[in-house]
Automatic annotation (TrEMBL):
UniProt KW Coiled coil keyword: yes
Name the record gives this protein: HlyD family secretion protein
Gene Ontology CC terms: cell envelope
Source taxon at top rank: Bacteria
SUPFAM superfamilies attached to this UniProt entry: HlyD-like secretion proteins
Localisation per UniProt entry: Cell envelope
Keywords, alphabetical: Coiled coil
């Protein structure tokens, strides 16, 4: 403090009040940090001041931006941390050099002034959340210490007003931190049910597959997706021009063969050679008759009809119209709308151990808030490529209640056995580490 002069007490008091006013006039924590480390220099004559919040330096006298790795910053943070361990930060006091470790005292001599005063910032619960490291070359007299203690309350009130939520790090002792880590580690051992998410679709159960009865081109589809059909209803029609021509040619060839057989039969009484050809011509007639019957059967198959009641399950008629298909190629499925199951495509990377009867929850894309419960019935042993080009295991599940509409898609959550929480959280990272490192 300046040497006493006439009116010195009044000047000190005026500067003290001005310092409190400047503190309360700060609009944000940045302005307040600058005021705390610079505005009191004229009143207390310190060489430098460092503001620490939650153990980290936030502002330094005469420095616009704090460099976290600067030697002085590291020294102040280390010194305050040691004072915190010794429980010497709760009260405003002159910092004794002997309380610090040897290396810290050496850094003190080279980086800071000889006389240091610690001014704590205390919250409403009486816990220290920060403080000021004030350093100068001359000792701190009792009157200055009283003024600084009073300012400490003002500084704390101003900081809490601008930042109501205080940092939590300084409120946790090392023992509490160790206890918290121990609780978290024990929590990782809590058994939880494993579960995976996979795309799923509601498919027919026990439906009748309608396959192409012949090689040909589909002329038209007479039903629409999910349309109800009855037994005998016409589903689709193949292009029949070629088939009709083949049937006509086969019919005419049969007529020629029958006429030739009849003519040779009439000549057989007088011509021995014609008599010898009768058996061959009769066999040819049977061959042509079989060819005609086959051509008529193909022509009959060009119209595909339903063999049971149900709904027609297929994607799009336009995708098939005009497209050549081969015999046995799947065209659609006739299914009972009340009989459906859930088909799940579980990616290889998400596979977990699953047993028949495992619980499954389906969330439809069209109704994500409603859950449909099911039970796992079958799971494939071999992964197959999906439409998206990924390898996945096929899982089949039966619904516990009335199934949703056939064709709906969504996301299925499949539940497995219980496992520690750590395995549940780290299963995929550990699998990736094992694949990349081989451990």
């Amino acid at each position: 403090m300046n040497a006493p002069v006439a009116g010195g007490a009044e000047q000190v008091f005026a500067r003290f009040l001005e310092l409190e006013r400047q503190t309360r006039a700060a609009r944000n924590t940045e302005q307040l940090a600058y005021s705390l480390t610079n505005d009191g220099q004229a009143l207390f004559g310190f060489r430098h001041a460092a503001l620490l919040i939650a153990g980290k330096v936030r502002a330094i006298t005469g420095v616009s931006a704090v460099e976290p790795n600067a030697p002085f910053v590291a020294f102040v943070e280390q010194a305050v941390a040691q004072l915190f361990k010794l429980d010497l930060v709760k009260q405003a006091r002159v910092v004794p050099a002997t309380a610090l470790s040897g290396p810290t005292q050496a850094d003190w001599q080279s980086l800071s002034a000889a006389q240091v005063f610690w001014l704590p910032l205390i919250d409403r619960q009486g816990q220290v959340f920060g403080g000021l490291w004030l350093a100068r070359d001359v000792p701190w007299n009792p009157s200055e210490q009283v003024l600084l203690s009073q300012l400490g309350d003002t500084f704390s009130h101003a900081w809490l007003a601008l930042q109501p939520r205080q940092p939590w790090r300084l409120r946790w002792t090392r023992k509490r931190q160790v206890a918290l880590v121990a609780v978290l580690l024990l929590g990782l051992l809590i058994p939880v049910r494993q579960s995976v998410l996979a795309p799923a679709e509601v498919v027919p159960l026990g439906g009748q597959v309608v396959a192409a009865p012949l090689d040909g081109v589909i002329a038209e589809f007479l039903v629409k997706p999910n349309q109800s059909v009855k037994t005998g209803d016409l589903l689709l029609r193949f292009e029949g021009t070629t088939l009709k021509a083949q049937a006509d040619v086969a019919d005419r060839a049969l007529g020629v063969a029958e006429a030739e057989l009849k003519a040779n039969a009439q000549r057989a009484f007088a011509d021995a050679e014609s008599s010898s050809k009768i058996d061959l011509l009769a066999a040819r007639v049977e061959q042509k008759r079989a060819e005609r019957d086959y051509a008529r059967e193909l022509l009959k198959r060009s119209e595909v009809r339903a063999e049971r009641d149900g709904i027609a399950v297929f994607a799009d008629a336009e995708r098939w119209t005009g497209k050549p298909v081969q015999t046995g190629e799947r065209l659609m499925e006739i299914a009972d709308p009340s009989q459906a199951e859930l088909r799940i495509e579980l990616a290889v990377g998400d596979a977990i151990a699953l047993e028949p009867g495992a619980q499954v929850a389906l969330f439809l894309d069209s109704d994500p808030l409603q859950r449909h419960l099911a039970k796992l019935e079958r799971s494939a042993y071999e992964a197959q490529p999906t439409a998206g080009g990924q390898l996945a295991y096929r899982l089949d599940a039966s619904f516990d209640a009335a199934p949703p509409r056939i064709g709906l898609r969504g996301t299925a959550k499949v539940f497995g056995d219980r496992a520690p929480l750590a395995l549940y959280l780290l299963r995929k990272p550990l699998a990736g580490l094992r694949q990349s490192v081989g451990l």
